[in-house]
Specification:
The protein has about 110 residues and is mainly α. The chain is built from five helices and no strands.
């Protein structure tokens, strides 16, 4: 098997591992099964990167695609939807706070 075939086989297998992980959920429930599978995914991606079969960009792209395919939204969209403003503050994302408070909390009348 040549290196291009090895890269493709590795990419395909890693993508399936990532999809399997997200089929188990997003990990917020603290499931032991999810944590074990996440460890397997991490181990595989580290080995593939060490062997030069996947780059960090490849790994991120595959994970993002699996998340979107299985959970139906991007990782960032899901994080913002579930964590809300408090998480944005922790991450230093202040865009939602640029306007005055009375405008942020005022419901427009129709």
């Amino acid at each position: 098997m040549n290196q291009r075939d090895q890269r493709q086989t590795t990419t395909d297998y890693f993508a399936e591992l990532a999809r399997e992980l997200y089929r188990l959920g997003d990990g917020r429930d603290g499931s032991e099964q999810w944590e074990l599978h996440r460890a397997r995914v991490r181990g595989f991606q580290e080995a593939a990167r060490l062997l030069g079969l996947l780059s960090l960009e490849d790994v991120q792209s595959i994970i993002d695609a699996a998340h979107l395919e299985i959970l139906g939204e991007s990782r960032l969209e899901r994080r913002e939807r579930l964590d809300g403003l408090a998480a944005k503050v922790e991450r230093g994302e202040w865009g939602d706070f640029e306007g005055p408070a009375y405008e942020r909390y005022h419901s427009p009348k129709k």
